[in-house]
Write a structure and sequence with these properties.
The complex is a heterodimer of chains A (120) and B (511). Chain A is α+β, with helices and mostly antiparallel strands and 120 residues long. Helix content of chain A is 55%, strand content 23%. Chain A contains 5 helices and 6 strands, in the order H-E-E-H-H-E-H-E-E-E-H. Chain A has helices spanning 3-12, 21-29, 33-49, 59-72, 103-118, and strands at 14-15, 18-19, 51-56, 77-82, 89-94, 97-102. In chain A, strands 4-3-5-6 form a 4-stranded mixed beta sheet. In chain A, helix 4 (59-72) links the parallel strand 3 (51-56) and strand 4. Chain B is of the alpha/beta class. Chain B has 3 domains: 24-91, Elongation Factor Tu (Ef-tu), domain 3, CATH 2.40.30.20; 96-381, Rossmann fold, CATH 3.40.50; 384-509, Lysin (Up-down Bundle). Chain B is built from 15 helices and 16 strands. In chain B, the strands form 3 sheets. In chain B, strands 8-12-11-13-14-10-15-16 form an 8-stranded mixed beta sheet, with helices on both faces. Chain B has a 6-stranded antiparallel barrel with strand order 1-2-5-4-3-6. Chain B has a two-stranded antiparallel sheet with strand order 7-9. In chain B, helix 5 (242-260) crosses helix 6 (273-286), helix 7 (300-308) packs parallel to helix 8 and helix 10 crosses helix 12 (440-451). Chain B is elongated, with a radius of gyration of 26 Å. In chain B, 45% of the residues are buried. Classes of the chains: A alpha+beta (120), B alpha/beta (511). Strand 6 (97-102) of chain A pairs antiparallel with strand 1 of chain B, so a sheet runs across the interface.
Chain lengths: 120, 511
Amino acid sequence: MTKRLLQQLVLASYQKEKLNPQRVDEITNRLDRKDIKAYLRALKLMEQQKKLFVAMPKTSVYNTSKKDLEKLFPKKEIVFTEDPSLLLGVTLVDNDMVYEMNLRDQLETVLDEVDQQYSE
Amino acid sequence: MNSDDIIKKIENKLMHIEGGAKVQNIGYVETVGDSIIVASGLSKAVMGEEVVFADGTRGMILNLDEDSVSIVLLGKSAALKEGDTVKTTGNILQINASEDLLGRVVNPIGLPLDGGPTIKKGTPMLLERIAAGVIDRQPVDTALKTGIKVIDAIIPIGRGQRELIIGDRGLGKTAIAIDTIINQEEGNDKAKKSKDAPKRVVCIYVAIGQKNSTVAQVVEKLKETGALDYTIVVAANASDPVSLQYLAPYAGVAVAEYFMEKGEDVLIVYDDLTKHAWAWRQICLVLKRPAGREAYPGDVFYAHSRLLERAVRLSDKLGGGSITALPVIETQADDISAYIPTNVISITDGQIFLKSDLFNSGIRPAVDVGLSVSRVGGAAQTGAMKSVAGGVKLAHAQFRELQVFAQFGSELDAATLSQLERGKRVNEVFKQPQYSPLSEALEILSIWAVTNGFMDDVKVEDVTRFEKEYHEYVQTHDKKLIEALSTGKKVTDEVTTQLKKVTEQFKKSFS
């Protein structure tokens, strides 16, 4: 199966920007094992691209900033995870881009810098 | 320095650390195999970028496809599996270069192999860089003395030249390179003591795909002779990942460029580029790149040309530093017309060709003077050496021409016979044991004595002993002559007279 055909199948699996299980069934019934694997991988990637993964130290902080995130990423479904180890700030994962804007990352940078300069 | 000072220093450092959001590009491992990882994502990755896996293993991106990238591992990792994350670092591969590298053995990404501390401080030098342009260069006119008579006299090497050492396995290619490194000790000592002496030569030995035991022997010999103090060994041995074997020479020249840009002279030995070509072939075949002649990738020439073009003599405006490259190529059955040898011969400024039949007949170093050449030539010789080299070159060339008639010994005229006899003695003088590089003064003594007929009445089998005792005699009885020859200036009539006198005196005492 060519990449172009695969892309067309993936797009055809969606109705009004939501995955249609019936269409997925119809498509998979017509594919062989190898093509099913490629099709499912492409679907997973597509689903991932529609999501924005957000990690914050507290749910309450997320609740206050939820609307701002929805404005910044209007077409994305926001998936929130509570991660107290971040201390302060946020981590955003949008497709294959990771935005580290948190205190834990800053402290790790400081530790790396000190380690680089002063340890053996 | 007390603890308060240390704390203040750290605080000061921390004030200048750049903050702000960190943006990383991530991907997920799709397939793992043959030291190549295929990962999806990484849409913002660039060619040659360094990436890091979840377990800390580093890799380098070598293929950018539409939906995936191919990464070659820079270390061993048995723990990587499908689905693991991989992040870009934003860095193209580089190595930290500094004076602390002198005397150390490191791998191509700068990790120590000699059990010493990691070199963390230094100037990050890119492994891949474009070579200096035409305007930034100046001609090669300073000798790089190898201490090997046949090379310094007939195939002289200059600082900033690329001279290939080529031959079958076991003929002494590495020995020539190591002797050259050891020979820099005398010059480096003089450079420390006097500002007028030629600059020191920093040496870098790049071991590519060698046995660990061989590299250990080389390091031990350098340590024993004191040469390791000004030498850096960059090693990617046979048991190391093939990616490191591919990167080793580029890492070596990156470190060399650090010293060159400070105005210093550097000697770099690539031992050997045949294994480097094999490593690049292996990587490209696994990456499914189209195979060309002998299954090498189409850019195998470029892999070596862009490496060797970085050996350069910079103009005085840019500091006047230089990198002299001695690449080594291993041939099979003396075939210098094979693919990789012809590629590298066409890139370099000359070659030292070692032949197996010369080696087997006892001529060591087994340099085939007829096929060896230095395209820089006399411009890379001191005045003193140039005065004597012309004569020995002619004598040796005449001998090679007449050798075929040697079987008719009784039927040759006296002049031809004397040329043959002179040539045999020249051959004997050119023989030299391993790890015994000579100073220029002693080389000139030997060559002058043989070309001026002072060894014509010495039996061929006694020439080596004659030479050794002659050197000892002159060093003991006429140190001023040694000093005069060591200046590098053209041999004057006065010095010639002194040479004649001391040689005749020695001959009277030689039995």
